[in-house]
Amino acid sequence: MLYRILRHTIIGLALCITPYTTLYAEPTSQALPVFSRIYDPKRNPIDDGNEALAIAKRTNRKVLIEVGGDWCAWCHKLDKFIHSHPQLKKDFFNAFVLLKVNVSEENNNQEFLKVFPPAYGYPHMYVTDHQGRILESKDTADFLDNKRYSIEKFYEFINRWKSK
After folding, report:
1. pTM over 0.85
2. What is the 3-state secondary structure (H, E, C) of the chain?
């Protein structure tokens, strides 16, 4: 009987601790929620957004909504850039809960995006607080230096929004 109680207590603690450690540990593709890893036209960004807001509130981070799609070459370059710089990736995911929202012919997620300022290119980013208030609309071209993403410009952005 005591064994069963201890076992359930340990499992319960593991389930409570796991979301916190996976969010603040070295971010891996497997540790991130699906909505932080892929643009999926079948996903519901309102449901995903509510989950992202809950995580942001619990972990004292901002939500970064990245609008784009698998068709977008610059979206793939942005992913590759972030994932090829381990410290930047860690700092990025410690500052933000990333919510990728698909825009494509298959699903433009117009209902979700109608409350945001228009995006004139992709990928486009919106920063919100954990209550969903829009804090910034960001053209990712602002991160470019000589047609390449700049670590320095990303750190300026991260440092402006990370929790103190």
Report:
1. no
2. CHHHHHHHHHHHHHHHHHHHHHHHCCCCCCCCCHHHHCCCCCCCHHHHHHHHHHHHHHHCCEEEEEEECCCCHHHHHHHHHHHCCHHHHHHHHHHEEEEEEECCCCCCCHHHHCCCCCCCCCCEEEEECCCCCEEEEEEHHHHEECCEECHHHHHHHHHHHCCC
